[in-house]
What we know:
The structure is a single chain. The chain is mainly alpha-helical. It is rod-shaped, with a radius of gyration of 22 Å. It has one helix at residues 12-57.
Amino acid sequence: MLYTIDQEKLSTDQQIALGAALATLAQAERLDQINERLTTIQQLLTNWAHRSTADGVR
Length: 58
């Protein structure tokens, strides 16, 4: 929705607010990407730890 706003029809204050909203959205998207990567790393480490424990028990 933010991407469809016609910025030429906005006041200066509205343009500033839109810019801030777009920056916040970009930051949230980046944090979501980082979270996905961390979740993948956590899963890999958990699997590795389980395999190590299972191999050590034998």
